[in-house]
Amino acid sequence: MNLISVNLGQERVLERRDRTERTGIFKFPTDKPVRVTKLGLEGDVIVSKKHHGGPDQAVYVYGMGDYEWWSQALGKDIAPGTFGENLTISELESGQFNIGDYLHTPEVTLQVTAPRIPCSTFAGRMDDPQWVKRFRQAERPGLYCRVLREGLVRTGDAVSMEIYQGETISIPEMFRDFYEKNKSEENLRRQLKAPIAIRARRDLEKELQR
Question: Are 122 and 91 in contact, with CB atoms under 8 Å apart?
Answer without folding.
Answer: no
